[in-house]
Amino acid sequence: MTSRGRNPLADGRVATGLPPARDLERARRFCSEKLGLEPVDERPCGLLYRCASGESQLFRSAGAAPGTFTQTSWQVDDIETAVSELRHRGVVFEEFEPAAVYGGGRTEDGIAEVEGHFRSTGARGDRDAWFRDSEGNMLSIGQPRY
Questions:
Q1: Domain for residue 5, yes or no?
Q2: How many domains does the chain have?
């Protein structure tokens, strides 16, 4: 808390950084063609995307993509429809056992049931699906389970 009684971070809006891109134009094409997202602002160092009330920045980087953990995640209302639409656009979903990290079972048709994972308040877990972007970064979509 500040001396004025407010917490500037708790009162602020969160903007995430979408994973780094070695090739910004390739990453832009992936976001456009595969995810259906267009930037709302462009700078030499990166692109800004807006989804619902959140923002995500895709930034140019010479570093390697971490690829070992989720970099950016979207919450959706219907994960089956989202997975189907993204597959139609050419997105390939990961098939693995997230149990060791997330407490879930093996993915089935790209979707895992994950107990105790929280996407929103009051959820008992979620249904998640992971995929990689054009730079090898891990991204995910999920639907809360109530």
A1: no
A2: 1
Find the CATH number of the domain harbouring 126: 3.10.180.10
User: Is residue 41 included in any domain, yes or no?
Assistant: yes
Three-state DSSP state, 107: coil
Residue 37: inside a domain: yes
Tens-place pLDDT, residues 27-41: 999 999 999 999 999
Give the pair of three-digit tokens for residue 3.
Answer: 């001396």
Which secondary-structure segment (H or E) carries 79? helix 79-88
Distance CA 129, CA 131 (A): 7
> pTM (2 decimals)?
0.81
Domain range holding 82?
15-145
pLDDT in tens, 104-119: 667 788 898 877 666 5
